[in-house]
Structure formats: C-alpha cells, structure tokens
C-alpha cells in the first residue's frame, strides 16, 4: 500500500470523519467543526468508507492550471522577440503576437516573462531602468559574473550611464521669484540624526530660512516659511519634493474643485504663493547642493560651538544665516527683488496653522487630540451649539486653539475631567471646623450629670 500524504486541511477533515465513523459521533458537531453542511458530511463518510484516507486528497493535486503558459510557448515568445520583434515595446509586441503569430497572452504575463529574462522595453521608464541598473551594479560590486543578457543590457541600453542627465539651468531673474525647499536627514549634532529644513532663493542663492526638527515635519517647514515671510516677504513660488506635506490629491474626487490641499498648501494659497512639486532631485539642484555645503560646514560650526540639542541648534541658526549669506549668496549683485510685503493686519499664527474638521457632541463640546474642548466667544461666554454642528478647528502656530463656525471665530478651552475649584471647600482661607461637644442630657452622660447636680445642691445648703 502506497503512503498517502495529506495537507493540513485535508488531514483535519480525514481525522474528523474517521472519529465520527469509528465512535458513531454526532454529525452536526462534525459539520460545525469543518464549517460544512450535513449533506457534505454524508458525502465525506461515503468517500471514507469507499476510498479510505486517499479519498481526502484534493482533486486538483498534481494538475497544472489550464491558464499556465507552456515552456514551449515561452521559448517561442523569447525567440520571436530576440530575432524578429526586437526594439518593439511590450504592448506592441503583444499585439503582433496575437495578430501575426496567433499567440494569445496577457500583458502582465508577457511583461513578467520578458522581465525575468532581463529584456528591457525601449519605452521603459527611469524607475525601471534604475531597477535593472542597481541589480547589475550590485553584482559588479560583489565581483559576481554577469550573464550574457546582463552584458547585452549594458551594451544596448547604456544601463550603467549616469542615472539622469539634466541640463544646467540659469538662475531666475528676480529674487523671490522661486524658492527651493527641502529637508536633509543627517547627524548634524549629538549622537542622533535630525532633519534640517531649509529654503534657498534660486536667483540670489540666499538661505532665507532654516530650522531643525527630529523628523521632516509640517512644523519644520512652517518655521522656514515664517522666517522667510518676516525677514524678506512673500515669495512668488515654492518648488519642493513631491511629499504628502506639500501635495496630496484625492483619488476619489480628481476634479480640481474637489482636490484636497494639505496644510502647507492651504497656507500658501492664503498668502498667494504658487506651490509646485517635483520628484526629480536635479530639478531643485540648488537646495541639494546647499545641503552638501552645509554638511561640510555647518556640522563643524555646531561642534565647535558645543551644540547638543535642537533648541540650541535653532538658536545658533539665527546668527549663522547672516554669516552664510554674506559668504555664499549674490546679495551684492543688486538683483531686483519681487518679495511682497505682508499686510500689518495679517495674523501669521492663524495662517501657519493646522486645520481639521470636527463636530460638536450632545454636550456642546468637540473632541480634538483625545481631549474635549468648549467654545467661548470674545466676551468669554460659553457658546452652546446643537448636536452635530460642524466646525473647523484651527491650531495656530503659537499652539492656541480656535474653531470657525459660520465665518465666526471662537476660542477653544479644554474641558477638564474634574473641577479645578470647589465653591464650598476652596475658599482661600481654611474654614475652621466646629468642635462637637456631647450635651449633658445625652443618655451616655445622664448618670454623671445627675450626680453633679446633687453635689452642687448639697454644697449650696
């Protein structure tokens, strides 16, 4: 008798039915255990009695799927592409296979087949070429031998050439016309890596703002923007990374009127600043070169000044910016500026804010960051709003909380879990407790009280 090997699920079915038949068990319990009906249990009992353990082997065991591509067809496709349809892009090649060779294959299956054999499409994007290049470069670094396909890939596609070739661009004509912004993670000071957020003027090369933070954060970029606005004015355009901090488009509503602006994008919109993003580092080469310069200079400056914390580093940057700009920027070339002045009534704390939507509950309070808040008007009076009233919560740059309801601003004050003051017990002066004296007429003292009265009357005689 040949040995029958079952998979875990098949083994569980076999053991359950075996115990059911051997011990004359309950079919309903067996059905619940296996998650099947009583009718299926009866079928398994019949299969067990007729075939034994072998009857529990799945019928598709050792069968090839009917959709699998045969090895002969794969070899034919590869031979056709290498000898007849070379330099065809993969989609065009798929069409030719169906039209001329009567071979029907899906695009994904064709792409995977050609990719496994290191065949690169003439229309391959940079990310695909980079994947091939990194794979080959790793082999070269490890002194591993390259296959014939990999060698041909290097020759035919110049796969080990520089990753991206971008022509040098001239500087913008006016200062403030374009600012490039980014953040750099590095061991700037201490023993932990931090992120330096910075912005540079494309026309003048001036470092207009810089700020350290533990991570690349919205607060870091807000501080850079605030420095720019206070020291120079409102720029015309920002060019940044394609990150969610700057750019996010809703997938459900791709129309412009329904697109979702991020917090930073909203702040730029309020100030009239154009915000553009790019995924190509070379497109914002000035900020990338700036970080190269700072990593060779600023680190040493921070070390010799014994800077150990982020607070100390940000204080040091305030004086370092002037020193850096005097040495490296083109401020002495009389380049015209197009920065706009900020209106005196503009509140930057409300513009550089974090905005979110909330609704009031039945207790006229809203929940924000796991805490409950109530709204107060300008006169300090508590405002009661209906259940489900929508509000826009604004966390200002100076960490104050406001809410906007129907174009009216209200201050949010945290609702404490317990009262901080008691009108009965917190009077400023400790209340003197009244001392209780047991009266002489109390039953406990009646005997001694009567004796005292008798002694007093006796002495008075």
UniProtKB/TrEMBL annotation:
Coiled-coil region: none
InterPro entries attached to this UniProt entry: Integrase_cat-core, ISNCY_transpos, RNaseH-like_sf, RNaseH_sf
Source organism superkingdom: Bacteria
PROSITE patterns membership: INTEGRASE
Boundaries of every Integrase catalytic domain copy: 166-344
UniProt cross-references to SUPFAM superfamilies, sorted A to Z: Ribonuclease H-like (SSF53098)
Listed GO biological process terms: DNA integration
GO molecular function, a single term: nucleic acid binding
Full protein name: Integrase core domain
Organism: Haploplasma axanthum
Lineage: Bacteria, Bacillati, Mycoplasmatota, Mollicutes, Acholeplasmatales
């Amino acid at each position: 008798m040949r040995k029958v090997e079952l998979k875990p699920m098949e083994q569980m079915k076999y053991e359950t039915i075996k115990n059911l038949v051997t011990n004359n068990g309950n079919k309903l319990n067996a059905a619940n255990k296996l998650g099947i009906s009583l009718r299926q249990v009866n079928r398994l009992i019949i299969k067990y009695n007729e075939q034994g353990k072998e009857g529990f082997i799945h019928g598709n065991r050792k069968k090839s799927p009917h959709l699998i591509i045969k090895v002969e067809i794969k070899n034919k496709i590869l031979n056709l592409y290498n000898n007849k349809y070379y330099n065809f892009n993969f989609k065009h090649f798929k069409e030719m296979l169906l039209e001329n060779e009567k071979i029907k294959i899906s695009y994904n299956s064709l792409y995977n087949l050609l990719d496994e054999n290191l065949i690169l499409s003439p229309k391959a994007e940079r990310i695909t070429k980079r994947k091939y290049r990194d794979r080959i470069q790793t082999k070269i670094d490890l002194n591993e031998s390259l296959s014939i396909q990999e060698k041909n890939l290097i020759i035919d596609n110049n796969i080990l050439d520089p990753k991206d070739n971008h022509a040098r661009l001239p500087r913008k004509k006016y200062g403030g016309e374009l600012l490039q912004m980014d953040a750099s993670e590095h061991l700037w000071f201490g023993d932990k890596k931090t992120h330096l957020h910075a912005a540079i003027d494309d026309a003048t090369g001036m470092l207009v703002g810089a700020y350290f933070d533990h991570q690349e954060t919205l607060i870091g970029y807000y501080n850079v923007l605030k420095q720019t606005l206070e020291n120079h004015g409102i720029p015309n355009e920002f060019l940044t990374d394609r990150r969610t901090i700057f750019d996010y488009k809703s997938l459900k509503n791709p129309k412009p009127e329904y697109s979702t602006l991020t917090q930073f994008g909203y702040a730029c919109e309020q100030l009239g600043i154009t915000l553009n993003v790019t995924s190509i580092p070379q497109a914002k080469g000035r900020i990338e070169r700036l970080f190269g310069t700072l990593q060779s200079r600023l680190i040493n400056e921070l070390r010799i000044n014994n800077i150990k914390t982020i607070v100390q580093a940000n204080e040091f940057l305030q004086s370092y910016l002037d020193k850096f700009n005097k040495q490296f920027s083109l401020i002495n070339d009389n380049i015209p500026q197009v920065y706009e002045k900020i209106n005196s009534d503009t509140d930057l704390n409300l513009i550089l804010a974090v905005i979110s939507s909330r609704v009031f509950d039945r207790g006229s309070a809203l929940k924000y960051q796991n805490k409950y808040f109530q709204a107060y008007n300008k006169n300090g009076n508590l405002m009661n709003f209906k259940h489900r009233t929508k509000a826009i919560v604004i966390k200002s740059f100076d960490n104050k909380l406001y809410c906007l309801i129907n174009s009216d601003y209200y201050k949010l004050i945290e609702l404490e879990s317990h009262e901080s003051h008691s009108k009965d017990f917190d009077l400023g002066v400790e209340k003197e407790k009244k001392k209780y004296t047991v009266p002489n007429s109390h039953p406990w003292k009646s005997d001694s009280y009567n004796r005292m009265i008798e002694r007093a009357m006796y002495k008075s005689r």
